[in-house]
Amino acid sequence: MLITIKRAAVALLATSVVAVTLAGCAMSKEEAGKYYLSAVCPANNVGTEYKAAESGDFAALQDVARKSIDIEKASAAKLEDDSVSWPKEVNEDDIQAIADSYYGSVAGMQAVVNAKSIDDADFSFLNSEKGQAEAQRVRAKLGLSSDGEGSCK
């Protein structure tokens, strides 16, 4: 019985060491690229949908804006996940800048949702370049296409 308990303790310790070691390991560039796209593509895709709705149908535009809010929050949260270890080539400040740009879009989308008419809506947030340079730098470091929309199809 004592031997069984010792073996169980050794097995538990070994499992704990492996888990701690894996948690601290940075993703490979390929893994990070897949993870990055899984974080940003939902927001990029809804952004494309938003552009398509800009044809003048304000109700459709508000529907896409409503949908965008949750998607962009989720994209930002995925990028900010503390359990993710990016490869050394990726600057964590760039990742944070991209997440921050999604939070900025959330505020703009909420303003569109709250607007009474298309004339009352402030679309200036759509012209923001915040996070764009950082996104291109991350994409380059991970060997991803510079085409944010095309790489998410």
Structural account:
It is a single chain. The chain is mostly helical. The protein has one domain. It is built from five helices and no strands. The longest helix has 25 residues.
Record keyword descriptors for this entry:
153 residues, mainly alpha, elongated
User: How would you spell out the order of helices and strands?
Assistant: HHHHH
> Helical segment tally?
5
- The quaternary organization reads as single chain
Residue windows where pLDDT falls under 50 for at least 5 positions: 1-22
Percent helix:
55-70%
Biggest sheet, open or closed, and with what strands and sense? none
Proportion of residues in extended strands: under 5%
Average pLDDT works out at 81
Provide the structure class. Answer: mainly alpha
Choose one word for the global shape: elongated
How many structural units, i.e. domains? Answer: 1
Number of β-strand runs: 0
Radius of gyration: 21 Å
In brief:
The chain is built from 5 helices and no strands.
